[in-house]
């Protein structure tokens, strides 16, 4: 049978869009490439559509070997689209694919004269040129930063470390090792599960940097995170940790005074200077950030494009310290940079030189299992995984570990231990059970949204003044953060859309909210798009409240959305908010960087490629005290645990030096 023609392929792609196997954008991109090259082979056009589809699913490239090996798995497709793909009679081996792509004028292969074509074929990976460039930039920046190691006075370093870690750890002290290792290079990656002390370690590292820096008074330090909430949390934790360390470092220097110069923690968008309607930031290689040390928390949420922009905007001499949990979900956007950077973190992979340095600086001997005699990688020498959780060792921590291992039996066993109220799996749940959880909580974990609704009703009288109003607003926002419904998906009765509507209705019917139209006092909201002109960023969570005594021309009080950044309250008139959603229920993706006393994870009835072990792990690790699993079908939970997310990327290969 002859291969499909380009025009027949366009018809086929249209049908795939109608069947929702592809996005409209994916077929349109293939059409655009056909216009650029009217002679284009159908296989090349199909590769473009699949590449675009994969980019929409978070992959940085189309890995041809994987496409030939297991297309349904890679594309997240069921049997029918996979069958239709096979019937197109197009290349079936990576060699056939690369031959066909390499012959196309739409494709450039590094090493050949650059024809500025929109696609790049690097080995057996096809990229949109933009993503190929991001990967190249990230890899070259990372390697340059980890390769330039500083010579340090290990004796002095050891003395400082003893003061910063006065209590010897029971086993290997990875936190101390992380401080020592991170001090050597201009990029350090510190990963670990929740409560393993990433921020605790970063604060000590910062104190160490002040200690060893010749001009500590002028050291410019900045803190940032992908979301406003995570940034505020980082600032608070670092600040209080530095306060606590001041005694240990006095009288050599005044850490409190140095810490007071650290500016506010910002979102990465704000730090880099996001501009409306453009991908470019104000800060870039030509206009670098004015700082010497940058600590970025929740780095698992930093996507490839953002990481490339961040690394480029950092002056070559500045240090970057990335903190994050490598096992968490990656960002919605393409790339899983932290996961790629930490792929070998569990094994250590330290060279003999790093081990000798670590021993000299900390007195600890790295066990042989963490050493790599042959070809140790440069990045591994600047990466440390923290392994002991300080506040997460209980049942929730054990459940997170079981999920991370994909151990369904252990996870089910933990949730079945009825005597432990921290964990619960609702048996055969109905949508009404989710409403009950939202209104009342559950045995062992009472409350739900009741406490925030109670706070809402206790607004101080206007005469009590602005400060009383602000305290109340902080209280309402704080109470709201105690409980959250997290969904794996958006659509359907078990998705955020269905649950938000149902909860709003149930609370109104119970007389707990008076809901008139879209905006009502007490509406919890999440910002879904950055809007620097208004000062709100994707992922910000707020609550609509009547402000303190501000009447408009009609004598009405227009609602404002209030947000809490640490202790800081900020507000925006709701009419200025264009992209917001109600936030009684939010997706697990959007919950990253937040923690709630009681977290309820709601899975959909049907499994699918959107469910993964990383998603369940991320949901569980959002819970501080109580976790409830709502899985309408038991096998959905099992399927999720069996499915690991591996995003296609060439970063691992580029970094393997
Ligand atoms: N070595 C240590 N000794 C005493 N307390 C510690 C130590 N390491 C961490 N902690 C404490 O454990 C708690 C968790 O630490 P931290 O917040 O730094 O963890 P984290 O990994 O940043 O957590 P998250 O993933 O939630 O951001 C904090 O209260 C911290 O002070």
From TrEMBL:
UniProt KW ATP-binding keyword: yes
Top-level enzyme category: isomerase
Sequence ranges assigned to domain RecBCD enzyme subunit RecD N-terminal in this UniProt record: 18-127
EC number: 5.6.2.3
Function comment: A helicase/nuclease that prepares dsDNA breaks (DSB) for recombinational DNA repair. Binds to DSBs and unwinds DNA via a highly rapid and processive ATP-dependent bidirectional helicase activity. Unwinds dsDNA until it encounters a Chi (crossover hotspot instigator) sequence from the 3' direction. Cuts ssDNA a few nucleotides 3' to the Chi site. The properties and activities of the enzyme are changed at Chi. The Chi-altered holoenzyme produces a long 3'-ssDNA overhang and facilitates RecA-binding to the ssDNA for homologous DNA recombination and repair.
Recorded family membership: Belongs to the RecD family.
UniProt name for this protein: RecBCD enzyme subunit RecD
Source organism: Kinneretia aquatilis
């Amino acid at each position: 049978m002859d291969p499909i023609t380009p025009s027949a392929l366009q018809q086929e792609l249209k049908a795939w869009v109608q069947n929702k196997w592809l996005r409209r954008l994916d077929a349109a991109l293939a059409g655009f490439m056909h216009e650029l090259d009217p002679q284009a082979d159908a296989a090349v056009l199909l590769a473009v559509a699949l590449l675009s589809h994969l980019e929409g699913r978070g992959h940085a490239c189309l890995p041809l070997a994987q496409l030939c090996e297991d297309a349904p798995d890679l594309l997240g497709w069921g049997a029918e689209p996979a069958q239709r793909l096979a019937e197109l009679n197009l290349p079936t081996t990576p060699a056939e694919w690369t031959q066909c792509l390499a012959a196309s004028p739409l494709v450039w292969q590094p090493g050949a004269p650059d024809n500025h074509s929109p696609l790049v074929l690097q080995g057996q990976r096809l990229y949109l040129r933009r993503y190929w460039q991001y990967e190249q930039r990230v890899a070259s920046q990372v390697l340059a930063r980890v390769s330039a190691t500083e010579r340090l006075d290990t004796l002095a370093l050891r003395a400082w470390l003893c003061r910063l870690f006065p209590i010897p750890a029971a086993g290997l002290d990875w936190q101390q090792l992380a401080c020592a290792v991170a001090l050597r290079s201009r990029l350090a990656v510190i990963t670990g599960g929740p409560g393993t002390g990433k921020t605790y370690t970063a604060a000590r590292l910062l104190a160490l940097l002040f200690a060893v820096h010749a001009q500590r008074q002028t050291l410019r330090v900045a803190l940032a995170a992908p979301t406003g909430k995570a940034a505020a949390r980082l600032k608070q934790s670092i600040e209080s940790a530095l306060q606590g360390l001041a005694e240990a470092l006095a009288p050599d220097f005044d850490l409190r005074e140095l810490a007071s110069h650290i500016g506010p923690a910002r979102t990465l968008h704000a730090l880099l200077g996001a501009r409306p309607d453009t991908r470019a930031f104000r800060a870039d290689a030509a206009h670098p950030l004015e700082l010497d040390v940058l600590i970025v928390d929740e780095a698992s949420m930093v996507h490839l494009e953002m990481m490339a922009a961040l690394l480029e905007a950092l002056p070559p001499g500045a240090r970057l310290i990335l903190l994050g949990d490598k096992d968490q979900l990656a960002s919605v956007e393409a790339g899983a940079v932290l996961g790629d950077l930490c792929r070998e973190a569990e094994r250590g992979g330290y060279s003999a030189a790093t081990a000798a340095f670590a021993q000299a600086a900390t007195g600890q001997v790295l066990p042989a299992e963490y050493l790599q005699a042959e070809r140790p990688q440069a990045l591994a020498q600047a990466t440390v995984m923290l392994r002991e959780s300080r506040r997460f060792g209980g049942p929730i921590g054990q459940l997170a570990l079981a999920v991370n291992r994909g151990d369904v039996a252990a996870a089910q066993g933990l949730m079945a231990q009825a005597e432990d109220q921290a964990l619960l799996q609702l048996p055969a749940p109905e949508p009404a059970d989710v409403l009950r959880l939202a209104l009342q909580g559950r045995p062992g974990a009472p409350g739900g949204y009741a406490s925030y609704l109670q706070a809402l009703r206790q607004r101080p009288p206007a005469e009590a003044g602005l400060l009383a109003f602000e305290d109340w607003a902080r209280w309402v926002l704080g109470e709201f953060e105690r409980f959250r419904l997290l969904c794996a998906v958006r659509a359907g009765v078990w998705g955020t859309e269905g649950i938000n509507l149902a909860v709003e209705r149930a609370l109104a019917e119970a007389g707990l909210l008076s809901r008139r139209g879209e905006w009502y006092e007490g509406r919890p909201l999440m910002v879904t798009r950055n809007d620097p002109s208004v000062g709100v960023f994707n992922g910000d969570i707020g609550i609509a409240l009547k402000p303190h005594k501000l009447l408009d021309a009609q004598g009405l009080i227009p609602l404002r959305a209030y947000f809490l950044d640490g202790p800081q309250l900020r507000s925006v008139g709701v009419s200025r908010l264009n992209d917001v959603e109600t936030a009684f229920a939010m997706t697990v993706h959007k919950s990253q960087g937040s923690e709630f006393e009681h977290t309820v994870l709601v899975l959909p009835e049907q499994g699918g490629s959107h469910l993964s072990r990383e998603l369940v792990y991320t949901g569980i690790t959002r819970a501080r005290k109580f976790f409830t699993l709502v899985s309408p079908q038991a096998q959905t939970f099992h399927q999720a645990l069996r499915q690991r997310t591996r995003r296609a990327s060439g970063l691992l290969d580029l970094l393997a030096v």
